[in-house]
Amino acid sequence: MNERRHEPLLPGFKEMAARRRELVDDLVSRRIAAGLTQTEVAARMGTSQSAVARMETGAGDVRLSTVERYAAALGQLIEWRLGDPVRGSSAAGGTVVARRGRASDEGARKGRGSGGRRDAGR
User: Fold this and answer.
1) Is the pTM above the cut of 0.90?
2) What are the backbone dihedrals phi and psi of residue 77, each rounded to the nearest 5 degrees, phi first?
3) What is the three-class DSSP state of 48?
4) Is 73 exposed, middle or buried (0-12, 13-18, 19+ CB in 10 A)?
5) Which end of the chain is more exposed for a tag (fewer CB within 10 A), N or C?
6) b (16+ CB within 10 A) / e for 52-71
7) Does the CA dihedral 101-104-109-110 come out positive or negative?
8) Backbone φ and ψ of 31, nearest 5°
9) Domains of the chain: total
10) pLDDT digits over 14-54, tens only?
């Protein structure tokens, strides 16, 4: 069977995907270091363990609000910046920074949009 490959519409899409993967990998490392299970993080996010597992493995394109809820469930905060790719800075980047104390279940859900459980697996 002939495999069809599509080139990205805009340059830099592959790099953006790699930066998102690095961000999620960093969050997963922080979850493990904190001794939290996927189930515990899912409960704090108001979603299912399987949705957390899909996000962690990179299955699908996860919404920013979902990544922010995941970070909040770990007591972390994501800071976003916008840059000019022509000048060598990232077009969009996220950095996980520590937040004081641990996020409570309620605090972890504060960033939750109206998407609820549906957006966790996208």
Assistant:
1) no
2) -130, 135
3) coil
4) buried
5) N
6) bebbbeeeeebbeebbbbbb
7) negative
8) -60, -45
9) 1
10) 888 888 899 999 999 999 999 999 999 999 999 999 999 99
